[in-house]
Amino acid sequence: MRVKSAEFVVSNSEVEKCPKNLLPEYAFIGRSNVGKSSLINMLTDRKSLAKTSGRPGKTQLINHFLINKNWYLVDLPGYGYARVSKSSKKKFQKFITNYFEQRKQLVSAFVLVDIRHKPQPIDLEFMQYLGENEIPFGIIFTKADKLKPQAIERHVAEYCQELLKFWEELPPYFITSSSKTIGQEEVLGFIEATNNE
Ligand code: GTP
Ligand code: MG
To answer: N or C, fewer C-beta in 10 Å, the chain?
Structure first.
């Protein structure tokens, strides 16, 4: 799939205010700073469609982008950001879980994980949560440019091994780098194949 048009539509913290039409959508979630917003820019070939930052906690709202006028890409805030207060963490959790539990047009979530790190409990717990709520998801390994090919292979194999302790089968997964444009075709191809337009 080629991204011919990509437009920012709306940012908000309430699922009720998300676009009302029933276009299929795909949401990107993961720890703060894992590279969600950068990935969205890479996938759409736009430098600054989604705002990125070296400081975690940049994306604070649910952001809808309309792609090719027929599906939505959704940029979400990161979880696990230590510097937000407990009360805002709670509020955050609520609007994110509301989003996942209420957004019927969500075709798939993508959980992003940094390819350099061992599986983190917070990511595994989030995948568990999606599974319990029957929300389909894929895993996107980010920042692949930071490792050599052999190390990528090793880290992915270790990750898969850990996942198979909890899951009977592996979810679809993708190896990406936003700075080197790796994995764009694979992720867009998956979206095209699952988007019943
Ligand atoms: P929050 O909105 O704060 O949750 O972060 P985010 O997950 O949207 O991350 P963002 O895209 O803002 O990127 C965080 C940092 O990681 C930035 O400094 C990016 O330049 C860097 N980064 C993102 N993707 C890549 C990548 O593929 N390779 C490298 N080397 N750096 C990346
Ligand atoms: Mg972001």
So the answer is: C
